[in-house]
């Protein structure tokens, strides 16, 4: 019996996977949840598909989870981000980090694809 998926893959006819989620927001401590929710809403209003990790696990674990789900970008929310409203946008495919203000995030994601 012929496996259709194998035939398509062998002929490069399967398009590369494109994740539907643009960005994962990782929360360092639960006291930053309200800030993170506000940021997520603002970014969703800019037409980004956002997921928020409410596990409060170690940041490394949250980033690994996002990478496993092939989410291309993460931002970790902690004390500095809340105080300054500035973020480090990390592209998971190559680890490149971009500093961004809230209003710059959507453009940086669009430009980095």
Percent strand equals 15-25%
Radius of gyration: 16 Å
CATH superfamily: Anticodon-binding domain
Structural class: alpha/beta
Q: Could you give a short account of the major beta sheet?
A: 5 strands, mixed
Shape assignment: elongated
User: Helix fraction?
Assistant: 25-40%
Describe the structure.
This protein has one domain (18-111): Anticodon-binding domain (Rossmann fold, 3-Layer(aba) Sandwich). Helices cover 37% and strands 22% of the residues. The protein is built from five helices and five strands. α2 links the parallel β1 (23-27) and β2 (50-53). The protein is elongated. The N and C termini lie far apart (39 Å). The model has no long low-confidence stretch (mean pLDDT 91).
Secondary-structure blueprint:
Layout: H1 4-10, E1 23-27, H2 33-44, E2 50-53, H3 59-68, E3 73-77, H4 79-84, E4 86-91, E5 97-101, H5 105-111
Offer a few descriptive terms.
alpha/beta; Rossmann fold; 22% strand; elongated
Brief sketch in words of this structure:
With 113 residues, the chain is an alpha/beta fold. It has one domain: Rossmann fold.
